[in-house]
Amino acid sequence: MTTVQLVTWGLTATGTVVSLGWNLFNFLRSGRIAKTLREEQYQSAQWTRIRGKIDAAMEGLVDAVDALVAQVSAANGNTAAAGVIQQAVSQAHDKLAVELGDAAASAHCAGDDWAEAAYGTQHGLETSWDLVVAALETFDTANLPADRIAALKKARTYVGEIKLKVNDRLRIQDYQLDPARI
Description:
Blueprint: H1 3-74, H2 82-105, E1 122-123, E2 126-127, H3 128-141, H4 145-177
Antiparallel strand pairs: 1-2
Helix pairs in contact: 1-2, 1-4, 3-4
């Protein structure tokens, strides 16, 4: 075997080994990337499911308060069905609190401060939800239609604060999953 043949054979063997090594490296790297992408997609899908439930519960609370305000405004402050709608407001808030509690318990949501968002902003010793309840109690005890409507508008304002707090918490989770989305 001549020197030229040895060099040619050596270069061919080296090229083959390097090529096989490079292909193995890319195969292993591609597998890790694919696994990471699958995990991220699963995490995103689970978060989308959880977020959808929270969004629906929040909209249910807002809609219940808006329905109460609309009904009382249309009846000029007097309505017999207000108790039923007040109960719907309370149930809607309970649903929101449950969905936020489920998010806190989920492995797909970071942090354990989810349930706090259901109560809104702190106002001294009271939360926004405490002030909603107080406004609904004022609504029940008020004699003048204007006072009843004013109490409901206050309740709507405090529900807006709860919505802002919930949306802020959702935004934090969105950012953790996809910083480019914010």
